[in-house]
Design brief:
By secondary structure, the protein is of the alpha+beta class. Helix content is 37%, strand content 20%.
């Protein structure tokens, strides 16, 4: 048995051991508390705070677009979108069923949208329906407690005030596609799925200026992700900073919206294009392609019905005919071959040709537009009355490569350099081109057909405007300008454009004057192809053209165009500049299947030119009226 001393010693030993164990445990607890609250305290506090917060994107407004007279063309408007945040989505089947009923959608369509975006971060809202009604907004907000993870996002959409007028020029915005993302992120790594970017026209080409930088704000949420309050920086939420948006920059165009509407109305719904450009600066005043589309529909979220309507339309409303469609220029090209022949010394003002309505080359017969011919024709009359036989004969003396040299000097066969996407270059054929393209040698008959702007010769409406601007200004080719300046919301100028001379070809003044007088006679002398349709006060010089869609057989060549099936009718073209003595503007018009330039295209060009003269050169207009 233990004596008292041994028992006391034993108890003391045990008590000491227990005390040491308790002390060690408390030390571990204190160490852990120190580690969590002191050493890792700030980090864990941040984690705790962020669990209570949700970062929401604040979308930056895009820059606004104005016309040359500071009239607003494209504005920003708020839009409400229904969104699901996967991080907070609970009772998925039940929630989607209820949401589908509110939005008049199917559960399958909601699931499909979620699956499509499953690669996105869970905290990022996924838009399931754009541009929802105020009633739908009210129901979602009212039933927020029963719809965990569902909310309403506010997006700044685009409103194009003139709707279809100039829709191809202005373009539209829409959501980034998955196939676009890798390329776009190579240019700007801040672009992510769900962002809206310019996809057409100016909105696409100038997107880097128009698109601002999104910001974000933090809101306090409950366990179901429901918003409780907006967070400001205070002692509780130190280090949590909202980021302000950076708005996009504004653009002022060279376009005059009044002239745009005149051109659009003059087209009367027909398919075609109108371009008006200043001859001495390259500034575009009017650029219309018809039929158009409603660009606002893309920003709102285009419906399948409207998209099908656009894509199934035979007139292809999504194609910008001013720069993305080329046509055989027809007799409009005669001004170019005429200048080439004069410069090469092949003809002069006294050169005459006898026209009996046809020209035979080997076994092939080329017809003049006037069935029984023009009789004796000199240079001036060939331009005025557009005698085809005169230019057939010129073609036999002019090598195609020489003709191509002059056509390119005047702006054909290459892009104009306008700062819009997907411009096509047209075509000026050469011997080498045909050999490469068809593995066939060039024939004299090819040159004869090209001499009157048919066959392989192709130009866009903008290129034809550039051609005639160069004739009017003495051989200068300017880059067509569509943007006048770019400025921010504080009015600070960021970019100012000005005339850019791309190239200049020196032509003999006498030769230019002969061509110009011929073009003036087309509209202002008896028997000119537009004389009976001229509009007083403009004093315009120009040329009509008929662009063949198909080649008719000899028995149908003189059948009235209007009697042919619509899709086989010729295109009507007119290009001209005004006023004749001091040219300011050039107008190019194409009316698809309009049959003739004089009847279909020239009245439109003159309406637009008349509107310009009355607005910008009223003194000259009044003087011309009195002179007439």
């Amino acid at each position: 048995m233990f004596d008292n001393e041994e028992l006391v010693r034993l108890h003391k030993t045990r008590a000491q051991a227990i005390s040491n164990i308790i002390l060690a445990c408390f030390s571990l607890v204190l160490a852990r508390l120190w580690y969590l609250q002191v050493y890792r305290g700030q980090l864990l506090n941040d984690y705790s705070v962020r669990n209570r917060l949700r970062q929401e994107i604040v979308y930056a407004p895009r820059g606004m677009i104005f016309d040359i007279n500071d009239r607003l063309l494209v504005d920003n408007i708020p839009r409400f979108d229904a969104a699901i945040t996967p991080q907070y989505l609970q009772n998925k089947a039940e929630t989607l069923t209820r949401l589908a009923k509110i939005l008049s959608m199917t559960e399958e369509s909601l699931l499909k949208i979620l699956q499509k975006n499953q690669g996105m971060p869970k905290y990022r809202p996924i838009l399931v329906k754009k541009n929802i009604s105020r009633k739908e907004v009210a129901i979602i907000e009212t039933e927020n407690a029963d719809l965990p993870g569902v909310g309403v996002e506010i997006f700044i959409g685009r409103e194009y005030l003139d709707k279809e007028v100039g829709s191809h020029l202005l373009g539209y915005i829409s959501e980034v596609g998955q196939d676009q993302l890798p390329k776009l992120q190579g240019i700007n790594n801040k672009i992510v799925m769900g962002d809206f970017i310019g996809q057409f026209g100016l909105e696409e080409q100038w997107d880097q200026y128009l698109r601002g930088e999104d910001g974000h704000e933090f809101v306090e949420v409950d366990a179901l992700g429901r918003k409780k309050r907006q967070i400001e920086v205070d002692n509780l939420f130190r280090g949590i900073k909202n980021k302000d948006v950076t708005p996009g920059h504004n653009i002022r165009l060279t376009i005059d919206s009044d002239l745009q509407k005149v051109a659009y109305d003059a087209m009367q719904g027909r398919a075609g294009a109108v371009v008006m450009m200043e001859v001495n600066t390259g500034r575009i005043l009017t650029q219309i392609s018809t039929p158009g589309f409603d660009p606002s529909a893309f920003g709102r979220g285009i419906t399948p019905e409207y998209w099908n309507e656009l894509t199934s339309n035979d007139h292809r409303p999504m194609r910008d005919r001013t720069i993305q469609e080329h046509y055989s220029p027809g007799s409009v090209f005669k001004a170019i071959i005429a200048l080439a022949a004069l410069e090469e010394g092949i003809v002069d003002e006294h050169t005459e040709v006898s026209c009996n309505g046809k020209f035979k080359l080997g076994r092939r017969v080329f017809h003049c537009w006037r069935k029984f011919g023009h009789g004796k024709v000199n240079f001036h009359r060939s331009m005025k009355e557009s005698c085809d036989v005169y230019y057939y004969r010129l073609a036999t003396k002019l090598d195609i490569d020489v003709l191509a040299k002059y056509a390119r000097a005047l702006g054909s066969g290459e892009i104009t350099g306008i700062q819009l996407p997907r411009e096509i270059p047209g075509l000026v054929p050469t011997k080498a081109w045909k050999e490469k393209r068809f593995k066939e040698p060039w024939q004299m008959g090819d040159t004869v057909a090209c001499a009157i702007g048919q066959s392989y010769m192709l130009s866009t409406p903008l290129q034809m405007a550039v051609n005639y601007a160069a004739i009017a200004n003495g051989g200068k080719i300017y880059r067509p300008l569509i943007v006048d300046k770019i400025f921010n919301n504080q009015g600070e100028l960021l970019l100012q454009t000005g005339p850019e001379l791309l190239k200049e070809t020196t032509f003999k003044k006498k030769n230019l004057d002969l061509v110009r007088k011929g073009l003036h006679a087309v509209m202002n002398s008896p028997h000119g192809t537009v004389f009976s349709r001229r509009v007083p006060g403009i004093d315009m010089a120009g040329k009509t053209g008929t662009s063949q869609v198909i080649r008719f057989s000899a028995d149908k060549i003189f059948t009235k165009c209007i009697e042919h099936e619509y899709k086989y009718r010729h295109h009507g073209i007119f290009v001209g500049y005004a006023p004749f003595d001091d040219p300011s503007i050039v107008v190019s018009v194409v009316v698809e299947h309009g049959c003739s330039g004089s009847a279909a295209a020239s009245p439109i060009a003159q309406q637009v030119a008349l509107a310009y003269m009355k607005k910008y050169r009223a003194d000259v207009y009044e003087k011309n009226l009195k002179k007439k």
